[in-house]
Amino acid sequence: MPTYDLSTGGLRGLNEALHAVSGATPNEGWTVLNPMGSHAIAVGLDAPVQVTVKGPTGYYCGGMNKLATVHVEGSVGPGVAENMMSGTVIVDGDASQYAGATGHGGLLNIKGNASSRCGISMKGIDIVVHGNIGHMSAFMAQAGNLVVCGDAGEALGESLYEARLFVRGSVKSLGADCVEKEVRPEHLDLLADLLDRAGAKAKPEEFRRFGSARTLYNFDIDNAY
Amino acid sequence: MSDQENQIPRTVPIQSATFSSPVNAEIRRAAATGIYDIRGGGAKRKVPHFDDLLFLGASVSRYPLEGYRERCDTSVTLGTRYAKTPIELDIPITIAGMSFGALSAQAKEALGRGASAAGTSTTTGDGGMTPEERRHSTKLVYQYLPSRYGMNPDDLRKADAIEVVVGQGAKPGGGGMLLGQKISDRVAEMRTLPKGIDQRSACRHPDWTGPDDLEIKILELREITGWRVPIYIKVGATRPYYDTALAGKAGADVVVLDGMQGGTAATQDVFIEHVGLPTLACIRPAVRALQDLGLHREVQLVVSGGIRSGADVAKALALGADAVSIGTAAMIALGDNDPKWEAEYRKLGTTAGAYDDWHEGQDPAGITTQDPMLAARLDPVEGGRRLRNYLKVMTLEAQTIARACGHNHLHNLEPEDLCALTMESAAMAQVPLAGTDWYPGKPGGGY
Ligand SMILES: Cc1cc2nc3c(=O)[nH]c(=O)nc-3n(C[C@H](O)[C@H](O)[C@H](O)COP(=O)(O)O)c2cc1C
Questions:
Q1: pTM, full prediction
Q2: N or C: lower Cβ tally within 10 Å for chain B?
Q3: Pick from A40, A44, A225: which is nearest to B153 by CB?
Q4: Domain annotation covers residue B304
Q5: In which element (H, E) is residue B423 found?
Q6: How many domains would you assign to chain B?
């Protein structure tokens, strides 16, 4: 189990070492000590490596992740798991703005709360937030699932495309073109699976679903020529 | 008295300069449809431009180089500041980012072929990287845009440089636009969007705002790509001094500055014509910003927006740019707006040279379309050959001028080689009005 002390080794050395891990050595576990809010920790990973970060991180932890599991035992700064493709990023604490922004795949599991713009422009990622999320979350979200066990802030799902949003608590307000939709059996199955994978205790039946009304998909032209 | 002699003189019908016939036609169009005009291309209005500058050439005090024989180098290296592998180009003319989606896959391939044959780079766009363009581009710059359509780390690692797009000259402050007609299955899939929607890209990056965040974003991109490739920042020309300074401070290797004449695939006409600065007006402030930071030539400056000829290239370089970038001109070289399609342009209610409804996807030249039948009209090999020839001519022209001014490298061109034909261009380029030693705003000039 390699251990890497960021306070002595530096960021470049850490990412270089993690990039050198190939698919041929699965499940190798790495522990990162003294992250102390550093930015860009464990970004661009491309192998099924397990990374445990012992403490809080700065911006973009786990950014563009593929295949790896990054577990932060602390809170994370803005843009955690941004543009993630696959794999898992777990945050034991809270997440700052833009968590999971533009993510294409994988699971982002936030045990605490997420701040504003959680899931902004998401393109296929699954995000489970055990606590609450801030305003403008899932702005222009294109695809994937955002599951919120707590409450959602203002303008949830503003200008939403095809992402599915599930909220258990209250929703302060919905953004333009975001509407509540019926929860069908397939959504309950989806929720059950995501909650199970994220280790969240909530029941699928407790969630409401929100999606796009699709009224902004095309320009409103009075007399097309 | 005859009837004729009785007639009282009348005023002739006078059209209003304010309510001109194009203005009135636009009011009628707006009244009928309820939607603003959307089009491609850059600003069509006349603004001070490179045409308003002249080179002085050699004289008694400066001797020229032999036009056909003496060496005049054209190479440029982009990304010397931090990248382990900077981009080395044979010529200082690059192909600007134009998206697959706006352009056909064949057109993208042709751009890659032409640029590669000419020893220069081409650039992806707001729609991700296609395998065709990667395969046919020896040097490919991967754009990192607010929309992040198709953005993925595999393509990022395949790129020879990364261009973080903050804005475009045609629409600084606006995102891209791709209307439903062009959202084919392939385009929809690459962008993770439903087919047929009028797609309006984000205008702002989803996970950073402001220069301090940008610095961290650049760090992340460098960490992902192992500090190997250069990172460019592309900005629309609005506040060139500050934008260039902030990009430099945030750690950019290259600043790409795009003036208001710069083309776009589609946006509101009101945006194209009324927002942003002319290309000519933004070069000197950007150069000054780099000089003030001690970064001129260490951070390279690439200028775009209305570059058409070797003379434009030479003028941009003389004002302090390291390279230029072309979009519209490259499309014209491929065959865009060619009069040979006049009959078809007429059917679309336009004429060769004026066709700008690129968003509608019916391009007779087969360039700005996703219609397989139309796209098949452009042969990527022939298109590549034409682009290579055009790039070669531009380079020869720029060399001709540089030699006449006595320089053995295009980068040795300098503001002292230039004069201006108008007060406006003298003020913007900060070179003397022709025949004087004065320009508006000249320090100590008294005005
Ligand atoms: C058809 C077309 C598509 C474009 N797509 C993009 C794009 O995806 N991203 C971008 O940053 N700029 C885009 N641009 C702008 C160009 O990168 C460049 O800034 C501009 O074309 C330069 O000005 P010029 O057309 O006068 O040469 C596009 C331009 C055109 C003409």
A1: 0.96
A2: N
A3: A44
A4: yes
A5: helix B423-429
A6: 1
